[in-house]
Amino acid sequence: MKKLILKGAMVIALGLLLTGTAVAQQQTTAQRQRQTTEQRAERMTQDLKKELNLNEQQTNQVAEINRQTTQEMEQVRANQTLTRQERREQMQQIQERRTAEIRKVLTVQQRTRFEQHQQKMQQKPGKQRQNPQQPVQRRSGGRRGGN
């Protein structure tokens, strides 16, 4: 009887732990989605400033690049006349241009760290790979019915 109660308590505790983790992830995603383009640009700039140890001039230049590209991406997202493929292609072009512009601002050492940072960001869950030769692995059970 005690073993049964103990097992039940462990199952409940595990369920609460998993539920808490899922709620925290949903809140983080929701917070990210509610950010304005300026907030996203600022977050991106601060991430790079920290990761690459940017000086003040570099930080200002990267901030302007990020502001411009996040605004452009928002315009593409809002354009309902584009197909999904056209939207994806335009977003990729904007991202490639952003990367090239940021690289121009960086020192040789910072460029190396920037490339490593880019690769690390691509490995995060939910990020698509920029290399079209590598298939994007999708998680099943999403909103889109397993697409």
UniProtKB/TrEMBL annotation:
Biased composition, class Low complexity, residue ranges: 128-139
Biased composition (Polar residues): 67-83
Entry keyword annotation includes Signal: yes
Start and end residues of each stretch annotated as Disordered: 67-95, 108-147
Compositionally biased intervals (Basic and acidic residues): 84-95
Domain of life (superkingdom): Bacteria
Keyword tags: Signal
Signal peptide: 1-24
UniProt name for this protein: DUF4890 domain-containing protein
